[in-house]
Sequence to fold (265 residues):
Amino acid sequence: MKDKTMLTDYQTILIVDDEPAARRKLESMLTKTCRYEQLIQACDGDDAVEKIRQYRPELVFMDIQMPGMNGLQAALLTREENYQLIMVTAFDNYAMDAFDTHAVDYLLKPVTLARLSQSLEKVAALHQRIPEAQLQLLADKIYGQQEEQQLAVRKGEATVIINASEVCYLEALSGYCRIVLTLKGQKNHNTDSVLSDAPLEFMHQQLDQEQFLRVHRKYAVNSEQIFAYYSVMRRMYLKIRDFPDVAIPVSRRNAPMIKGRWQTV
Fold:
């Protein structure tokens, strides 16, 4: 008798993601949620286009944010092919309205088995491919609104992509850099911080210098997280919105800059 958890039979499924660990995880979950004859993988948008045209998969899991050609561009380039599409994304919920508005489903990273099952049920019920116009509207929705910088940080075999708005502050630690996440970032990445083997100077250069202020030789702070400053024994410290108990020291050289932009408490 067919397992109740096996939702749909597929001839060929394609997983597109630039992170090998993410591809392996999704493949493992698919073995528990559907049946298929062949599962293939692609590591970027160009590879995805080539394999979609070569193997003609019925179902494609497409990561949105990839180096080079992104997932939406790859989907638009293969619009002549007849496959069902599930987007995989680490974007915040602000973009999810676009998915809900159009007949394309999405999986928000980190993907869970329960959410994958729901997505397969939804896509199986559609019995249709995603119209080009809907993909274009989705691309306009996401890339028309999101131009913020990102940090790519190696974590084991994977690379963690962190939006600038998810970074609270950077801290130098003996040649390394600790990236402390905002409350939103902690929720999205399921961790309070990420350690990079690159020094603070390098990581700070990857960010907008107007938004991330180097307030001390050991700290660079997201200015959106600063709401006040105070002094103790003639030393200045910053108060952080998401973490009121954290005290970020400010060097004497940078004190005038802080005084000119924020109030004291």
Q: What stands out?
A: Residues 20-33 form the longest helix (14 residues). Confidence is low (pLDDT under 50) at residues 1-5.
